[in-house]
């Protein structure tokens, strides 16, 4: 039915090549010079991945944050990670792009970049991360994904690897995904998101509601904000900060409820 209307960001980009640079996935690249206050550390070899880790090393509950296409070095993402860590979790932000995030550099061929960094393939490749966390007694795991990471999180949720996921302004997520997710899912969308418009969020929730094998779900659309609002917000704009903090609080509530 409505599937023909779906233009997931990454697929859409792939089919329209480099002309689509106005898409919201590519907007507001993070200011990498704004970091420096992180409390965590970068480790070289978490199951073969470089990763930012923080939080409670002795907790049996871990959260993996999956970044947007701008990668794991974004200062605002690390702030989010530190706050999750401060809430009692062990937090891991892997570099899924092998040191080559999208940087906004116009010489990068975005079509090629996306071919090389499929979130579906990344989810398969990430299995050792979850195995390693479990070996380290992190038996209860959640994934929080932003944009690209939203699709990653959904793919992980199809595999029985984790107990709950939260996806914020996802890209590439389609209605069919909602029929295959195996754990509680929270979906945080934006009213002005052109990548995953509100209409899609309604369709996702509708598909979850119609499932015969019920899983807990929650969907919310934040008014007056666009794609990226939860992790690439303007940190000097009080209203943008407030909305991002609300999204963060909902994510933490969801994990608090389902990672027990
Ligand atoms: C970008 O990469 C795609 C996929 O490899 C290729 O088909 C296309 O020709 C490239 N575009 C440019 C402008 O190099
Ligand atoms: C959201 O969309 C409304 C209506 O199109 C517009 O007035 C507003 O400026 C947009 N806000 C943002 C943050 O994009
Ligand atoms: C960020 O917000 C501040 C305060 O509202 C504003 O002055 C500034 O122009 C905004 N920056 C961007 C890049 O939108």
UniProtKB/TrEMBL annotation:
Keywords carried by this UniProt record: Signal
GO MF annotations in UniProt: hydrolase activity
Pfam family, one: DLH
Domain Dienelactone hydrolase: 49-259
InterPro entries found in the cross-reference section: AB_hydrolase_fold, Dienelactn_hydro
Statement: the UniProt record of this protein carries the keyword Cell division: no
Signal peptide stretch: 1-19
Top-level taxon of origin: Eukaryota
Name under which the protein is recorded: Dienelactone hydrolase domain-containing protein
Species assigned in the record: Brachypodium distachyon (Purple false brome)
Gene it is expressed from: LOC100820927
